[in-house]
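User: Before I run my own analysis I want an independent prediction to cross-check against. Here's the chain; please return only the structure tokens and, at the end, one sentence I can use as a sanity check.
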Amino acid sequence: MLEVPGQPALSNFRIAKLTRALKRLDDRVSALAANYVYLIDQTGELSRDERSRLDALLLSGEKPTRAARGSRSLLVVPRPGTISPWSSKATDIAKACDIASVARIERGISYALKFSTRIDDGELLALAPALFDRMTEAVFTDSGQAACLFESHAATPVAHIALQANGREALVTANSELGLALSDGEIDYLCDNYAELGRDPTDAELMMFAQANSEHCRHKIFNASWIIDGERQDQRLFGMIKSTTEQTPDGVISAYSDNAAVIEGWDGARLMPEPGSREFNYVDEAIHILMKVETHNHPTAISPFPGAATGSGGEIRDEGATGLGAKPKAGLSGFTVSHLRIPGYAQPWEDDFPHPDRMATPLEIMTDGPIGGAAFNNEFGRPNLAGYFRTFESRVPGLPDNEIRGYHKPIMIAGGVGNVRAEHANKIDVPVGAKIVVIGGPAMLIGLGGGAASSLASGTSSEDLDFASVQRGNPEIERRAQEVIDRCWAMGTDNPILLIHDVGAGGLSNAVPEAVDHSKHGAEIELREVDNAEPGMTPMGIWCNEAQERYVLLVAENRIAEFTALCERERCPASLIGTLTDDGNLLVNDRGFDNRVVDMPMQMLLGNPPKMERDVRRERLPDDELDLDGIELAEAALRVLRFPAVADKSFLIHIGDRTVGGLTARDQMIGPWQVPVSDVAITASSFNSKTGEAMAMGERTPLATTNAPASGRMAVAESITNIAAAPIENLSKVRLSANWMAAAGHPGEDANLFDTVQAVGDQLCREIGVAIPVGKDSMSMRTRWEDDAGEHQVVAPVSLIVSAFAPVSDIANHLTPQLRSTNEASYLLLFDLGKGANRMGGSCLLQSYQRTGGRTPDLDDAQLLKKFFAAIQELNARGMLLAYHDRSDGGLLATIAEMMFASRLGVTLSLGGSQTDLVRQLFSEELGAVVQVEKNKLTQVQMVLDRHEIEATAIGRVEDSGQLVVRSDEETVLQLERTAMQREWSEMGYRIQAQRDNPTTAKQEFDRILDRNDPGLSAQLTFDPSDKMLRTSPGDARPRVAILREQGVNSQYEMAAAFMRAGFAAVDVHMSDLLSGRDSLDNYQGIVACGGFSFGDVLGAGGGWAKSILYHGRTRDQFAAFFDRQDTFALGVCNGCQMMSHLKELIPGAGHWPQFLRNTSEQFEARLSMVEVLESPSLFLAGMAGSRMPIATSHGEGRVEFSDDTARYTSSYTIALRYIDNYGDVADQYPANPNGSTDGICGLSNEDGRVTIMMPHPERVAMTRQNSWHPDDWGEEGPWMRIFRNARRAFD
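Assistant: Structure tokens:
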């Protein structure tokens, strides 16, 4: 093993933060340093040239650092037996750079700790838990110990359970030791079946059976029969939910029969590269919509970052594996946790209930979990456009002192929308003889038994099993697999995929049987053909591990060579592991030991396990009177605005790319000040489409503590009041995903679950004609543990999280909460679906005062919801509404406040009644919405409302004051400045951001709210964006542009669409095409290096991609020759910008270019940023100098750093773009300068203007509808389309 000392691993502020944390554990800690250490497994000695290349790759010109004298070191490395995602990508880069002697590269961090006194090894190791994640990492005191990372262990044979010798007790023991979570009935079932087979089971068979039949996979409670209060029920939960689709089946193509539901979409022109020529073209076809929402609660509770990351990754795979292969498009996410208890920010609703050490705290979950989910989406290339966040704890009257309602076991939601071709929407029967192929990453010893572990209440399994059951993610390799899937479905009816199934819970032991069982066949598998990173892993481990980013596919034998070639082009590992048979038996051979790991009839595995019966009783908690005494309006308003369910969610949103893919039409951020208050997310069907898809969420879980059915109805209704902001033909076009969570087995909770499912599935959704074609359940929402004070329980109430999806008829004609300034008076109308009941039970107000009691809000009249939806749709279609926002958490006050924040206008509300009446009116969370209407349209609006038999009440008017004024009986009872309200609303997010990211940049963003004069985003153009400059006809020759990508690049489609619109022929060119000789840059007039995460951005963003060019003779010569030609151009955007900056030695006139380093915030930044176009040689920006306008920013490493001052000054005339603030000045503060670049620099040209690089994304905002905000007078094309037309004009 070669050890190479590396660069500093942590910034100064992170070192300071970690040092403080260590000092709290041991006050003798005096100093800390952290440096990377690179560990290399070699196949032979490195040559001098190879070592030079390796050092250049690893160190990127930086000098290595070593620990100070007198320090004690701890080395943190990836967990032995695994290959880190970083390693797989770094090793790929080394191989691409022809460093043949490198077998594998791993990276660790060496922490050097100095102490004020001598310490022993035990005291040193006691600090280790603060430095590493025991789920994904290991810690050593000596770097030599890290050699175990590369140890290759001998294969071991399968283990057998001595059932024949020891009887049933052998299975009972195995159940406990392996964490199988088998019921007594299932143990008996296995005893009987193995007796019939006349042999002992293998451990692999038992683990496979446990995963395949876990609650997580088989949904036993939802398929159970029920007895409630001694009365047998004639319905099952799953049946009631499925009945909604039976009631309203129109437009539902696939429901509960696949990884995701499929509903009818729109006809449109869909962009894809042609299978042979690889040229991008539009194909007119039906673009159907798929929808899926998953949970990943248990893994997120144990280790938040990988738990949430693999939750998002698993849901993405569900979408890609729908039908015969589909394409994920946009995501949503959500989190529910117990109260945060942010240090230094204690809140009155928080008390001191304990928390188990084995689980992450709510603050840790909300610090790391959202980053994990966002990071996976970002790297895969899927925008996250919707979500929710709630904290909840309650000491409900009638519970024991040691029990509360809350979410120590969190809810982690990952969902999304995608598209699938009509001919691929449903799975098909597959003939015997088809080959079983696994694509994606290798088997690793991670995630073992995750399906079973997720089926257990937290605290009822061993801590080691908890950690062993959680996976970790590698989004870049999942992207590679998705590219293979995309190449296959693009073949249409010639798609080589006969069946596809994602690998999730249970690993191959679940995915392969389910794929085989679809056509009721058997299979013969060779275990040693499974791609395996750890040869010494047991056969049970190889078969059952949950290593992520894998898919099982069935491919016809005569298509295998073709399919393998597709995988090789995308550098996606693929293993042919078996064949479908006609004997109905699953046989897994191990040729290494000439034995059988699995030999089980499929019927035994999946056919007839014991069915469940739930015999439960309803539990009535004592009634608790509502107490609103002593609640003062101003304090109540500020307290509710601070409450996490209401407060600003920006800290959860800017970390996620919202523009990747180029099909986002409505994200979370609203208005010129980009405030995250959108009700709905909208995507376009395709780049030239006016139609699209909408998604929105609804959840009201606190209500379930006292009225679970009401909480379910309110969740459904809230999702509908949210999605109503999008133009949808009628309510029946809305379909729901229902994610059900409960603490099954806890007194009263099973009955609450049944009653809620009945209220939603059997009643409400059938009545309003809304189908629920997809969903998920998690039945272990209880945390139980013991400490010195005794036993504690935190039990989640029945929790229904609803996600609504619908086809959108006009993506540009949606409503937002942004109030509009008008020439004449405008008024606010309240649609109160609670009909004045103003029930307060479960409200954020009561929670913020730690009060319980009172009746909960509810949907009393389902028909009223239908009328409301129809009325809003007509009012929107007729252009009568200026703004729209639903009423939910925080009540009317929060609704109005958020509308003010989005517009920076003021509102005067005219209410009436007593102090208690005002509290109810302002803070009740009954269903409803507020709309803004101009005075001259009030009569027309009333006519529409009368026709739909629904009422809306005028409650106030919009002002220019920047204040919220509430008047009652002509008296002002509340007056608050918008600035003060918004600071309260945003402080929770700022506090989390300050301890998660760079505290300096977090403070700069928080303080920006204080600027009352901030004009917001604007556009000042020096050209006419409607001038298409060059008229082309279909017969004209089109210059060819290579849409260049490396593994991990994810922005090629939007780039191709922009160049095609400007008149180019865009061709999909993978770096493997150039390396293999399949294609050459000689065939192109232009090259565009696209955005994304090439090689996962390891070894420096874009650096690995560039070095694979510089250190490979064929590609280096090709690129040098291309740049030397005078008839070419090149554009590098984001990751492509970073890559091209490393190629400056090949680009004439680019020697002064800077490098692009980690953002100052040390966070991925996704924003709509103001930039100024400067005078420069760039042919792309010709005629645009002096223009100031917004552009999409999405990167983690965009900070410009020049080699020296001379390079900075030399580059002055080639600087093409710079970030500016909303006043038009050079941006030197975050977030106007999102990455901390000197002088706001974000784009440069070479000296002759043919090559331009820029960090922001013009291709993602080339069309007006792609912009999160834009001036009302922009046409179909936005101003950034000009750079592509400039490029085309250069070839005129």
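Sanity check: DSSP finds 38 helices and 51 strands in the chain.
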